[in-house]
């Protein structure tokens, strides 16, 4: 046997390693997509209450709109989520730019304090935040969900790192042209930070669209319920065996997040890989 044949022939260990790799990938895909597929199939195959026989159809989805004010919950969730996502993008961009490009007293100490808030669970701060919101007269309003969520420690950290990777000479050139700090930020640095802003916006949208804990604490009136909180009222249907109606509501609530992911995966990927090739 020649040396070329010996090199070209794969060893049994390589074949077993490839099989093991694909087996792990298939298992991971099953664990990730299995519950989603089961949810969709169950929502599309409700049980007839008279015959107790499953049939394929969209009757469970129609039941969702009959049993709860779905569009009201959808509107509340969309309003809160979009405002919070845009607000976090702006606040993170401005705070990250200041920490990256300006020098002031106790800058590192203040930035460290902001990062420290990431280690504090929301359950620890929800009571003082609720007391503050109630003192402002905003209890049981959508503003109670929007205002506390506008600052973001993770977004500030992410945008600071992103702005630090941009050339400082851009600010010097802008100053020579007569641009002030605000114009330099909005006209020069902010357009270059679009991939980083996309990460902050997409993560904020996905998190607050599915958020349940804060709406549960901050809102009481049904007219202010967000979609995850409103879907809880469908759980009463489990007592009658209509689990398809509950899962149909879950499927409907997943569609906006899925759309955002499909259209936002390119800027998200660009933002996550920015600077890798430098």
UniProtKB/TrEMBL annotation:
Keyword check for Transport: yes
Superkingdom per UniProt: Bacteria
InterPro entries, A to Z: MetI-like, MetI-like_sf
A GO CC annotation given for this chain: plasma membrane
Organism classification: Bacteria, Bacillati, Actinomycetota, Actinomycetes, Propionibacteriales
Pfam family, one: BPD_transp_1
Spans through the membrane: 19-41, 73-97, 109-130, 142-163, 184-209, 243-263
Domain (ABC transmembrane type-1) ranges: 74-264
Predominant location category: membrane
Listed name of the protein: Putative ABC transporter permease protein
Bilayer topology term: Multi-pass membrane protein
Source species of the chain: Microlunatus phosphovorus (strain ATCC 700054 / DSM 10555 / JCM 9379 / NBRC 101784 / NCIMB 13414 / VKM Ac-1990 / NM-1)
């Amino acid at each position: 046997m020649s040396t070329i044949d010996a090199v070209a022939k794969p060893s049994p260990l390589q074949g077993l390693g490839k099989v093991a790799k694909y087996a792990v990938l298939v298992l991971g895909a099953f664990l990730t997509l299995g519950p989603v597929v089961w949810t969709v199939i169950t929502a599309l195959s409700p049980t007839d209450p008279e015959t107790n026989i499953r049939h394929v159809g969209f009757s469970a989805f129609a039941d969702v709109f009959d049993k709860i004010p779905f569009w009201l919950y959808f509107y509340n969730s969309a309003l809160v989520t979009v405002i919070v996502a845009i607000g976090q993008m702006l606040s993170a961009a401005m705070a990250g730019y200041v920490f990256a490009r300006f020098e002031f007293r106790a800058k590192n100490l203040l930035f460290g304090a902001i990062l420290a808030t990431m280690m504090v669970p929301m359950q620890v701060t929800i009571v003082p935040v609720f007391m503050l919101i109630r003192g402002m007269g905003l209890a049981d309003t959508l503003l109670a969900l929007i205002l506390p969520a506008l600052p973001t420690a993770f977004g500030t950290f992410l945008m600071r790192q992103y702005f630090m990777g941009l050339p400082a000479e851009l600010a010097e050139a802008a100053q020579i042209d007569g641009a002030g700090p605000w114009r330099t930020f909005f006209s020069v640095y902010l357009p270059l930070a679009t991939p980083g802003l996309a990460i902050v916006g997409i993560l904020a949208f996905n998190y607050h669209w599915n958020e349940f804990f804060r709406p549960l604490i901050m809102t009481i009136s049904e007219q202010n319920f967000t979609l995850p909180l409103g879907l809880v009222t469908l759980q009463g249907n489990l007592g009658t065996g209509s689990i398809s109606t509950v899962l149909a509501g879950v499927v409907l609530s997943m569609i906006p997040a899925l759309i955002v992911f499909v259209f936002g995966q390119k800027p998200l990927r660009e933002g996550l890989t920015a600077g890798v090739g430098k």
